[in-house]
Amino acid sequence: MAYKSLVLDIDGVLIRDRLLLEHVKDNCVRYVQAKLPECKNPRETNRLLYLVHGHTATGLKEAFKIDASDFNEKVYDKRLLDHLAEVIYGTDFQLEAKELHEVTSKNLWKTTLFTNAPLVWAVPIARAIGDHVYITPDANKPNVEAYKKFPPHHTHIYVDDSLKNLGTARFLNNWHPILFSEYKEQRNWCPTVDSIYDLCMYINSVDKWIENKSDN
C-alpha cells in the first residue's frame, strides 16, 4: 500500500483572499512597529524579515535579539480571526474545500496543513476541508528540521507559494515540491498549479504513479 501524503501551505494556497492576507500583513507591520519603535519603515522591515528569515517573529529574534513570544497573540487577534471566518464560510472557499475534500478522501491521501501560522489560524481551515486533515502549526519553515518530522518513507506532494520553502524540500527523499502561483513559471524541479481545481487534477494524475511506485 502506498503512503500518499499531501502537504499544503495555508496563506497563498488555501487562503488567497487579498483583503484577508493584507489584514495579516498589516497586523505583522504593527507588531514590528511596536517591537522596533525607532524603525522608520516597518512595512519594508517586515517584508525583509519575512524574505530573509521566512517569518517575521523569527527575523526579529535572529536579527534583533527581540523576544517575539507574543507574536501569535498580537497578530492573530479577534478581528483577524473574525475576518478569516467570513472568508472560509464564503462560497468560493467552501467550493474549493469541498473539491479538495472529495479528491483527498476518495484517494486516501493523508492531508497535512504545514504552516508557520498558529493553531487558531489553521484549525478552522482544516475543519472546513474535512476531519481527515492534520495540522503542523508554527512549523518554522524553511528550516529543514521542520520537514524531517514527516515520515521519511511516505511520498509527500508539497504545495506552497514560496520558492524558498519549496527549495528546502527539493533535495529531500520522497518530497515533490509544487509551486502554487497564478503565473505559470517553468522550472524543471518544481511544477506550477494556479488553482485548487488545477491542484486536484494534479493529485488525480499522480495517484496511479504513486501506487505503481509502491508496488515496484
Provide keyphrases for this structure.
216 residues, alpha/beta, six-stranded parallel beta sheet
Question: If you had to describe this structure to a student in words, what would you say it looks like?
Answer:
- By secondary structure, the chain is an alpha/beta fold.
- The chain has ten helices and six strands, in the order βααααααβαβαβαββα.
- A six-stranded parallel β-sheet has the order 3-2-1-4-5-6, sandwiched between helices.
- Helix 6 runs parallel beside helix 10.
- It is globular.
- It starts with a strand and ends with a helix.
- The model has no long low-confidence stretch (mean pLDDT about 95).
In whole angstroms, how far apart are the ends? Answer: 11 Å
Residue-averaged pLDDT, rounded?
Answer: 94
Biggest beta sheet attributes: 6 strands, parallel
DSSP E strands, number: 6
**Helical stretch count?**
10
Low-confidence stretches: none
Taken from the alpha-carbon principal axes, the silhouette is globular
- Estimate the strand proportion: 5-15%
Oligomer: single chain
Topology order in helix (H) and strand (E) letters: EHHHHHHEHEHEHEEH
Radius of gyration: 18 Å
Strand order of the largest sheet: 3-2-1-4-5-6
Structural class: alpha/beta
As a percent range, the share of helical residues equals 40-55%
